[in-house]
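TODO from last week: model NDP-glucose--starch glucosyltransferase.
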Amino acid sequence: DNIMRLTGITGIVNGMDVSEWDPVKDKYIAVNYDAATAVEAKALNKEALQAEVGLPVDRKVPLVAFIGRLEEQKGPDVMVAAIEELMEEVEDVQIVLLGTGKKKFERMLTSAEEKFPDKVRAVVKFNGPLADHDRRPARRHQPL
């Protein structure tokens, strides 16, 4: 924030509370971790997320996630077009989409899930615990 202010840029800077989102003590992730245990724990948390959203559980498959408002400035139409292209070019990939907004964009995400049911999940409702996946891995015992 200070560096941005020195350049003359103004606005709201995104950030996070590093103590609230500390993976060592986070009560919402499936497996807590620190620097020494991060690699194995993150893989387990990824598997928990896959299971939670109903995707095939496989730690070897890359998982891409989008969490945000479905509005023009966020580019959901570009994202859906990229999903189509990605699915044609990459055999093993999974995508989780979470957000609400304009109905036309919600329909686009739902359509991507319908077209690629084993690879794409579109959660087009507000889900606070699942939304936290953008900052930390899978949640424990939080229904969709």
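Done. Residues 38-53 form the longest helix (16 residues).
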